[in-house]
């Protein structure tokens, strides 16, 4: 979401800097944020990576954090999906769902919210990442809870639409995290500031071809 503007700024101000990105995931089954992300914290302190970007607010005091942007979830589906005509909670539970899960665990945060209301849903498919999810729902009748801004930026490419969910879904902040001691490195401190000022990609507008008469 923020790499395009970050790369533009690096090309302008520091074209010799190369960036490597790798995926970070919490430890499955851990409910404590400190334990769930302990591998990422250990890699930061070992300087195996310079900056971590995680949906985490409660961090140990030896780290510094900066919010990049806030995000919530919407229900995404192919353009013309019948659910979009009547997006009620009953219809939502009747639909077949796709869940993003690297481990293949079909139980997500939406299921916890539904269970609190005495409801459930059928998860017909799990996939390992959000981009894969968009590619699948664009060609099927599956629906999926995905990050709002992410869906908006990719909507035109995949011909998908997004609706507000008929239940309260999770909202989170995406934070850049760095060890405080690492900020003594002027180069890393500069890069952290640049990352903090990078703007998330603006949502792309759907472009429709004019109909011929």
Please, could you describe this protein's structure?
This protein is α+β, with helices and mostly antiparallel strands and 213 residues long. It folds into two domains: 3-69 and 172-197, 3-Layer(aba) Sandwich (D-Maltodextrin-Binding Protein, domain 2), CATH 3.40.190.10; 71-163, D-Maltodextrin-Binding Protein, domain 2 (3-Layer(aba) Sandwich), CATH 3.40.190. Helices cover 32% and strands 22% of the residues. The protein is built from eight helices and seven strands, in the order αααββαβαβαβαββα. The chain has helices at 3-13, 33-36, 38-45, 89-94, 109-116, 130-137, 148-158, 186-197, and strands at residues 52-54, 63-78, 96-100, 122-127, 144-147, 160-163, 171-179. Strands 1, 2, 5, 6 and 7 form a five-stranded antiparallel sheet that branches. β3 (96-100), α5 and β4 form a beta-alpha-beta unit. Mean pLDDT is 89; it is low at 205-213.
């Amino acid at each position: 979401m923020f790499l395009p503007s970050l790369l533009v700024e690096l090309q302008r101000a520091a074209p010799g800097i190369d960036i490597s990105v790798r995926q970070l995931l919490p430890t499955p089954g851990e409910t404590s944020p400190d334990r769930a992300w302990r591998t990422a914290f250990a890699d930061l302190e070992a300087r195996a990576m310079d900056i971590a970007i995680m949906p985490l607010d409660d961090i140990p005091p030896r780290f510094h954090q900066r919010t990049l942007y806030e995000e919530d979830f919407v229900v995404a589906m192919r353009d013309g999906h019948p659910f979009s005509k009547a997006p009620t909670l009953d219809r939502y539970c009747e639909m077949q769902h796709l869940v993003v899960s690297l481990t293949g665990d079909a139980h997500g945060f939406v299921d916890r919210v539904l269970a609190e209301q005495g409801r459930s849903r059928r998860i017909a498919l799990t996939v390992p990442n959000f981009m894969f999810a968009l590619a699948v729902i664009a060609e099927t009748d599956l629906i999926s809870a995905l990050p709002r801004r992410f869906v908006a930026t990719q909507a035109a490419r995949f011909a998908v639409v997004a609706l507000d969910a008929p239940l309260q879904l999770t909202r989170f902040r995406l934070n850049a995290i760095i060890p405080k001691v690492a900020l003594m490195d002027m180069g890393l401190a500069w890069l952290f500031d640049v990352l903090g000022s990078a703007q998330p990609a603006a949502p792309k507008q759907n472009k429709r071809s004019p109909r011929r008469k």
